[in-house]
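Working notes for the structural subgroup meeting. M.R. asked for a predicted model of this chain before we commit to crystallization trials. I am recording the input and output together here so anyone reviewing the notebook later can reproduce the run.

Input as submitted:
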Amino acid sequence: MTSTIGSEVVIGREQCIFAFGPELTPVTSVDPGTVLRLELNDCYHGQVRSEADVPSLLDDDLINAATGPIEVRGAMPGDTLVVDLLEITTGTRGAATVAAGRGQLQHLGLTEATRIFEVTDGMVRMNDRVSFPAQPMIGVIGVATARETAPTLDAGPHGGNLDDNLHRVGTRVLLPVRQPGAMLALGDMHAAMGDGEVGGSGVEIDGEVLIRVGVEPGFQTVWPTAVLDDSWITHGTAVEDLTAAVDAACDEAGRLLVDEWGFTVEDAMVFLSVACDVGIAQAVHPCPGTVIARVKVPRIDACPLPFRPRAAH
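Returned structure, recorded in token form:
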């Protein structure tokens, strides 16, 4: 269901997709500047109700639903879609799973398992001994692709399952527009997730996200980028090759420093080495799919954003 409550457009969790492609049908069309509240399914689509619901019993076709797509009027190929994450409100019950053959520690003889979490008052309770602060974030955020069809489990230049735990309240996510209207969709909320998501799960949970959409005309990066209070981030993805993902994220950051902010290649290399941080958003070895790296660039006067703002259409 799509409705308008006050100044917000509300999209229900039943309006969702499981793949990003070049031809998506929007559930709503909005103008730049619109604020939307999206209801999100947990990544298991409600299939995990207890610790008896282990991965082998789940329907994989229902994994990683993304609410949308949302057409943003005026967004055209060559532009950048701007998504501000204004609020993230989780449910009170989350889950994480251990699947045979997925994630680290396989050599220690893992068996499949499910753990249920209570999420209340800003804390995640795993069991009587283990509790830790909640850090709600959005795992899937993406737009229509240029040509290929990509499951919402995968990441790429369109975004998708970026699984970056810095995609939290206050972050501005920038996505390259490949199709008219962009066709934005979000999903895979986590109450918390570690860098790398090395076991293949965050604290998977349902909830709501409040976003504002906009369009930066006339320029786009190759990969999705993001802007935080103190830094901006480039991403790079690759299939089962973390080195290639790091290379892509570094290439993007270096290119932006040179092309947008006038760094020499040598200065860009030195700056990346002495002031910027390479990180891992996802590395679920040996799970087939994508691994995601990021480069975090400080927002200083010499390079305050990924790229210079362009004039409006």
